[in-house]
Structure prediction request, 777 residues.
Amino acid sequence: MRSDLSWTNRIRKLFGQSARRQVTPVRGRGLRFECLEGRRVLTLSAGDFNLDGLVDGSDFLAWQRGYATTYTATDLTAWQADFGAVAAVTTITLQGTTATVDGAGATVSGSTVTITAAGNYKIIGSLTDGQLVVNAGDEDDVTLILAGANITNADGPGIYVANADDVTMTLAAGTQNSVTDGATYASAGTDDPDAAIFSRADLAIDGTGSLTVTAKYHDGIASQDDLAISSGTIAVTAVKHAIKGRDSLAVSGGTITVNAGSDGLKSSNDEDATKGFVTISGGNITITAAGDGIEAETSITVSGGSITATATGKGLKAGTDVTITAGTIGVTNNGAAGRGIDADGNVTFSGGTTTINLSGATVLTASGSGFDPSYPSGVKADGSINVSGTASIAVTGTAAATGARGLSADNAINVTGGTITVTLAGNGATYKNASGVTDSYAAAAFSADVAITITGGTVTTTSSGTGGKGLKSDGTITIGSATGSPTLNITTTGARFLQSGSDYNHPKTIVAAGAIIIANGTTTLNSTDDGIHSDTSITISGGTNVVNAISATSGVGEGVEAPIINFTGGVTSIVASNDGINATYGTVSGGTESNDGSQLNISGGIVIVTGSDAIDSNGNITITGGITIIDGPATGVEEGIDYNGTFLINGGTLISGGSNSSMTKAASTSSTQVNFFLKSSTALASTSLLHIQDSAGNVILTYKPKYNASYFHVSTAALTKSTSYSVYFGGTYTGGSYVGGLTTWGLLTGGAWSPAGATLKKTFTTSASSTVNTQTF
Prediction:
């Protein structure tokens, strides 16, 4: 529709040139215009936006163009309510290789029917080798009512709109219609028609009948301007693209099934940044495509309807952004390095249900002295991925989807709401990178180059392939906020694999090159290798956090690992087959027992750790607050607490049990809070208790180890210098509970300890000058 057409001209289309003086709008349902010359009166429906006397698909196009500026959702409701019968109709009867016309506005020449004027044309019958042509005026609106029409053209489009303002193709109720072209066209130039139904004008399709399009040459249904589908049952099989609107493609209803040799639904205008978009607000769409399911030169917006796409390229591919606010989307992609949703800009989910299944492998493309990998991805954005509201996203990658990504962003992944589930089974692999160096890749549920921020919603991921990752960022990872409390369940079950030399690609539930911050929420991590790893720092300031890093491979399975680790709040429970907490810069000069300058700081929260070396710092440890509960191995050289630099206890509560390793050391003498290093010649059984009280019977703590323990570190704010304390093994404890939600071991509180059956191991008086008290018994 030409937006510069004046209201007077529009009404003259209805009343004729006699409407050259005054046109008066009269209030009421819709609009009533009175032409003062001749007093000709016509009442227009509220849904007749283009003022042609009809409520049809061209009005939907008018609404679409003016939405948010001229029209509103209420106007669309009016259009839907008023959609109905048309005025005078010219009937065209197709008869094999010719046709007859009953009415005005159309002519027949051989097997070609040409419509030359605005109006409504009912098409019935069959053309075995012919063409229906619309060649009307620039301001003419034409409605084609297909009422049992079957058109075949061996060397061109079956229906060709050469010129008009808007064309509406209405599929009459209860009728079946078909259009078929040939494998070759008589005219095959760059600008010549290339679709079984081809329009150079805006094209709208509506009605409740059916239409089958078989395109043997190129595209199925194509408009050089806007294309809108609001209803009908439409099936398209095309050698190339099934349905294409160059300037835009809008689907608001109908049942659409397409099978395309290239893209299913497409908008291709690459010359105007305001065009080339696809919008889906309704309908049931099923796509099978050798290329992309839905492809837009600019944006794709889904606000309703149901989309089921099976594609080899991308399920949804946008040159700018993809926005999903409602509707149901299902994508199956078996193409190598295939993608469910792919955007050169951002992908935003605020509602709807999106399900993506991947089964294509990673592709290695020659680059430099080696290769660059391209990964199969559920959602891939060159910008950011944003998930909020009620959005539901599920991505599954089969074992064939090697190195798959669930959500992958070149910028950031931001989750403030919704539900995300990613399940990946593909293995990782080695390859030569562009520099010619042996490198490796592995699957990752989330992968971002800049940042991953999750402050709301529920995220559940499982990576079962070798080297698989949960959350992976080349930048930072932030979980939770002061007001945002997400729920995360991240699992990796695969094994590590050798990259080169002694370097392995390890499964990790959370891994980042930059800082990792956990501030709130409920985070549960289960890994067959590492739990949380950062090359920079890890800070846990809130939330309830469970980390299980259990590997069957000796020496593998770090719970929390980074050069700088800070615990300032929250409740964190760590179980690891190797180090529970490992502060390290990695291999440094001087070997594993040198101080590499790494730092573990505990200033708040509850930290519960078990592991082989429950806490291991290749640098320093400083405890100034919080509650730290540790249980190391029962025997061997590994310890409850191992450090290379300094170990300062300046506040908080600490209880640690471990083996009688000769490597275990007391805290540093520069500690400011009184502490004990207790060394027992006989181990405290895991079924027994360690109880400490002062001479007045005031309880310092009662602790039950997870494993047999011989050496203990103890410190609380209640300990003082020059004070007598007694240490017991055994006794009974009634009532109360374990601190931090533990159920079978740990620090007991809220109950009562009884000395019945206990053994007094030692009574001693703390130093008057030193905060460190080493006692052997």
Remarks:
- Confidence is low (pLDDT under 50) at residues 1-44.
- Residues 57-66 form the longest helix (10 residues).
